[in-house]
Amino acid sequence: MRNNQPITNNEKRLSVVQAHVSEDVNQQVASIANLSSRFMKQADYTAEKLHSLNPVSASMRDLVEGLKR
Q: In which domain of life is the source organism classified (predicted)?
């Protein structure tokens, strides 16, 4: 109840929708964090491979490190 007035059906529906939206947003944030972590791991792997292929690629590794920041 709000100020001694009953909660309306629209307010109940809004509350349910807000809960679903909040859950969806949380899932999307977790998914983005997972993708970001995978991207960083791939960037590290790529930098290591570049470095092992050619000593000149150390500058490429530095570039990749710079992009990660």
A: Bacteria
Q: Could you give the CA distance from residue 16 to residue 38 in angstroms, rounded to a whole number?
A: 33
pTM above 0.85, yes or no: no
Select the more confidently predicted residue: 10 or 68: 10
**Element at 67 (helix H, strand E):** helix 58-68
Cβ 47 vs Cβ 65: under 8 Å: yes
Asked whether the beta carbons of 34 and 40 are under 8 A apart, the reply is no
Compute CA distances 16 → 12, 19, 20, 32, 33, whole Å: 6, 5, 6, 25, 26
